[in-house]
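## Example pair
The file below holds two records. Each record gives the amino-acid sequence first, followed by its structure token line.
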Amino acid sequence: MSGFDAILFDFDGVLIDSEPMHCACWAEVLAPLGVRLEWGWYRDNCIGVDDREMLRMMAARADPPRDWREMWDQYPAKQKVFRSRMIQASPFPPGLPAFLDGLRPRYKMAVVTSSARAEIEPLLEAGGLLGFFDTLVCGREADRLKPAPDPYLLAARRLDARAPLVVEDSAAGIASGRAAGFEVLAVQHPSEVAALVLQRLSADGAP
């Protein structure tokens, strides 16, 4: 039997390939303000980063510099566009429900994400995945965001987990899980998550 008692999944880039859509939706709602957001810059600087911090970085690099709070006012519009497009896109890997169902008898599971609950919960529900998770830790529900350990520590407390496995793709998320004192499995794309998690659990003695 595996020494892990829980599995804590990041959301964007781990359970779902959503980062390009996040970027596209922000680019759309910021364009009327004259703000340009390019995928290359977003990919290199914003994945795993809180939206407020992303907008602060964008405002500082603008010419001339802008007030990031004006850009933050577009956040409700961004959420609405993102939810609509992602629900229509069926973005979860096709084998994800069976994978999670196989884990459920042995492990408590949580989603731990910097994205807002209002963004991810409807997607999990639409995908039939919400019931697999014992808790969600979203956005600013923890005292500090990734890369601080707070989100993963909060999830572990909610699950009463002593030895969780963290599954992450971003530098900030990996740092967060390690700072919490947990083992972190780094992945590069949602399509490889199931195989890598099962491989790691098998190496630790899980059937």
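Second record, same layout:
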Amino acid sequence: MSALHPSGRTWGRLPGPLRTVVISVALAAAYYAAARFGLRYASIGRSISLVWPPTGIALAALTVLGLRYWPSVAVGALLANLATPVPPLTAGLIACGNTLEALVVALLLRRAGGDGLRLDAARTVRTLVLAAVPLGAMVSAGFGVTALHLAGGLEHSAPAALSVWWTGDVLGGLVVGPLLLAWVVPRPTGAHARGMVEIALLCLGTVAVAELLLGTLVRVPVLQQVDYLYLLFPFVIWAALRFGPRGATLATFTVAAVAVWHTTRGGGPFIGTSEPATLFAAACYLAAVAVTGLTLAVAVSHERASAAAATELREEELRAALDAARMGTWSWTAVDDRVLWDATMRELYHLAPNESVGTYGDFMARVHPEDRDYTASTIGQAMDRGTRLDFEFRIVLPDGRIRWLANRGRVRLGPEGRVVGLTGVTSDVTDRRAAEEQLRQAHRMESIGRLAGGVAHEANNQMSVIIAATEFIRRHPGLPLEVTTDVEHIRRAADRTAAVTAQLLAFSRRQVLKPVVLDLNEVLQRFVPVLRRSMGEDCRVTLQLDPGLAPVRADPGQLEQVVLNLALNARDAMPTGGELVVETAMVELGDGPPPEEAGMEMAPGRYAVLSVRDTGRGMDRATLANIFEPFFTTKDVGRGSGLGLSTVYGIVKQSGGYIWATSAPDRGSTFRIYLPQTAATPERSRVSASHPHPGVAPGQGELILVAEDEEQVRRVAARALTEAGYQVLEASNGREALEHAARAPARIRLVLTDVVMPEMSGRELAERLAILLPGTPVLFTSGYTDGEILRRGLLAPQSDFLGKPFSPEAVVRAVRERLAPIKV
């Protein structure tokens, strides 16, 4: 086969010109030999045969090798015709017809199939059966019969000779030509030995059935009466279904050989009343067999190609989906302990090209030691119960990093229904688990924050009473020293409790902030002396400030508190000294988080980054996961409240920023704070909070209405105002306050009301008083901060507010400022 193909190994070793000569000679010889064989069965004269094999050889050669080999066909045809008793001129004309026939068929086939001529293509077969072979045979028959008629060599009528000649060439083109085209043109995948044996058995079966029915070796009278026409069709059909064009053409050739053999010997079902009738019957049968085999092979090949293309497309789509999801596929056969991984699986495990994972033990060696028992147990249960596999576990990469993987699979069953292995997919879920942990942490912090806010509210109410009571006691002259000392202890304890409450409010993001547009570098430079004093002589403080830092909006005092808390923690982590680096920088974030902080969701934009880095002991992963929770501390009892970092967290989050920490044992810690950039101009520094307040002028007997449901808080507020020169009406709720307002002996100049009260809130009370006493100012107070009550809709924006705990002086000052504002 390869000897006929220009790219075959036989011709590939020869030089170009020599190869062309050898192929030309071989083609001419093959045509001549086939023609001599066909002439042995000439049915009209010495030149017209029922089947003309050279037609098939010529069309196959010119189609595959190229039209330039037509001279070889012409030479072979001329020599074959010169061997018959016809004049040389007649032989030449017949040879011209044979050559033109091959050229016409080859040209049409090459145009239909292009360079990739395939008999399993519907267009090629349609062109071959309906156009190329019939048209080429007509050319050859026309030339041949005309030449014989002119030479006086026709023994039958011209129409009869023309029909037989045309039929013989058509059968040669449909039986021999497709056989050569199917077996000479290389297939995409080579036929295996088992398939070749099956094809050979089909051909032998065809011959055996024909001989059993028509032969003389074994005579069975019943079988001799059976018409074997339809009995040979199953062989052609099976060959077409099983092997496509190659099987169909070979089976067709075998049927044709058997039919022609018996017909020429005077046997078979084609014998008619006359020789033309016999030829016509045989020709129709063989044409039907050839066309049936070819068209069926094309249909089967098309369906197989469509199915293969659909399967390939589904596999590509599946692979694309797996690649997009970064999912790797795997399988494990328990019988021979064989593990197969695809390329994505190798990427997930960061395997080197020369590393292999071939067994279950190789896989388990890469599982995190703490997860091996769980992994083995889960796989064992799936194997024992035949259930699906769905679990997550950790692996250790070659560089020591730990990743989380999700395994999902199902069992594979053997012939007897027993579980023989597993197959499934694996994906990396490290980032997802990190995001889930961030979400759980946020929910946990939010819950703790709500609790802290509620606790702070109650504590602020009680601290207001305690602070006011100590102030009232201290005002009494002539107190014994012991009493004065005890009162100071009570006051300091109350102040410390109030400070803890303020830290709780800071953590829960419910404290009062006064944000301004500021230059972060300026704040740090002004604050660095405090840092150096706080860190001590053995801890060096270094500033690394970005001169191009953009302004941010934050409360400068709270920002200083953040830096101080971080610095004090760093100092505790460096008992033998070290370095504290405070650094600023500008970053611009896209739609994703910073690469080093997987799982931290941040809004895109430009940020000013404040980093505080130390060279201390560092923290392990477990400690790092809890550092922002209130009352969590690693310090000894009595050395810390556990509220420093929780306060930092609350201030940063309430300022619209983000904070996280990175640390490792013996490698120090780094806290990064991202604050959104603002386009506004930084404001000038305000008066320090430590600047003394001006004195408070006494009241002039103005009437004040105090509405407060906490009796002790109400009484200390009323006493403070009374001692400052005001008249006071007390109400325990909103309804009672409205009654006092309706029958007050004088005009009420101001209302001091708690925001959260039973029956009627402070806001509702203010709205009803605005109708009853229009123009009367209202001062709100609460153990919650104004930010919290605004968030809950309990207070209108821009309302006057006094937070608890408050001292008697603070209450008097707030009232005086609302009645007659004092200019600072």
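Notes on the second record: The two ends are 110 Å apart (CA to CA). DSSP finds 25 helices and 19 strands in the chain.
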